[in-house]
Specification:
- This protein has about 325 residues and is mainly α.
- Helix 6 packs across helix 9.
- A two-stranded antiparallel ribbon has the order 1-2.
Length: about 325
């Protein structure tokens, strides 16, 4: 029997294997239909997420006047970064952001953790309605919140000054509280605390929900065993609750770092684009907005945004190191 040449099987296999175009022609509708259905998400994500990110990176190394079109872009290297680092307003906005972020970030968790523990221990049937009351500020419009607090902080007709004046009439508090109305939004000393208070009020409920969700996963047997051993509520909180919600603390604090270093809405609506008297509440995000849309310098604004991104990344890594255990995991 005559044998076939050695190259013939390869040729037969090559001929029998259809090309890519032939495979596409043979595909039935049910083969490619799933890709059609999921394509809108990827198309929108590419247009509204990926493209702005890569374009901002490209723009950070260029100067550009949008009114003159894309052809007006001019490559300047790291000039935008060096200009931003030498701008005193940029450093002032970064200091304002850090001050407000710390003043509004730490109280959120110092209030939310005990509050979640109290709700978890004290409320059974009414737990969800009570939690919903604290969560309501988070889902309320930021514009509405800022407008309401702008009225509450009013110097002459604000409820807060009226409450302080009422408390000042008491014998013990009268020597501590001021006798005149406080200009909350017109005095450099009180602008940052006022903005921070609004942010704390808005996000305490959000963090309470996170911590309460973590506490509800703690086995009840641990608390029962602790009570049998004579542990009181305070000991249960510090020795059982806090160690068990450590992973959620890492997650919640990471969100606070990311969100607070991008603060824009509350100070912008309360104090205006300039940040109030002496730019006291001018945050980095607000200054980037002004640099781009008021000063028409989109390149420098993009460079500032990426420097802020690096700062957030560094602080997130530090937070990860703080909450990491011996085996490298969080919690």
């Amino acid at each position: 029997m005559e044998s076939l040449p050695l190259t013939q099987p390869v040729q037969v296999r090559a001929q029998s294997k259809p090309g890519v175009l032939q495979q596409l022609r043979r595909m039935q509708p049910w083969h490619w239909a799933p890709y059609i259905f999921i394509s809108p998400f990827f198309i929108l994500f590419a247009i509204f997420a990926l493209f702005p990110i890569f374009f901002s990176i490209y723009l950070a190394f260029h100067t550009w006047d949008p009114a003159m079109g894309l052809s007006a872009m001019k490559y300047v290297g790291f000039e935008n970064f060096t200009f931003a680092l030498g701008d005193s307003w940029f450093w002032k906005s970064l200091w304002n952001t850090t001050w407000i972020a710390l003043a509004s970030g730490a109280p959120q968790h110092l209030i939310a953790i005990p509050l979640a523990f109290f709700i978890n221990q004290s409320f059974k049937k009414w737990r969800n309605p009570v939690l919903g009351m604290y969560f309501l500020p988070y889902i309320t419009s930021t514009v509405a919140i800022a407008m309401i607090f702008g009225t509450l902080f009013s110097r002459d007709f604000g409820v807060i000054n009226a409450a302080i004046a009422g408390l000042a009439k008491l014998p013990l508090l009268g020597a501590i509280l001021p006798t005149e109305n406080i200009n909350w939004l017109g005095n450099k000393l009180f602008i940052k605390p006022a903005v921070s208070f609004v942010i704390v009020w808005r996000y305490v409920g959000w963090n309470t929900v996170l911590y309460l969700a973590a506490m509800q996963t703690i086995p009840k047997d641990l608390y029962e065993a602790a009570r049998m051993d004579g542990a009181n509520t305070r000991q249960q909180f510090f020795n059982i609750t806090l160690p068990m919600i450590r992973p959620m603390m890492f997650f919640a604090i990471s969100l606070t770092i990311i969100g607070n270093l991008q603060i824009f809405e509350e100070p912008f609506i309360l104090m205006g684009p300039s940040g109030g008297l002496g730019q006291t509440a001018l945050t980095s995000a607000m200054f980037m907005y002004r640099t781009a849309f008021e000063f028409n310098d989109f390149g420098t604004a993009s460079a500032m945004s990426w420097m802020l991104f690096l700062l957030i990344g560094v602080l997130t890594v530090v937070n990860n190191k703080i909450f990491a255990t011996d085996d490298g995991r969080n919690g």
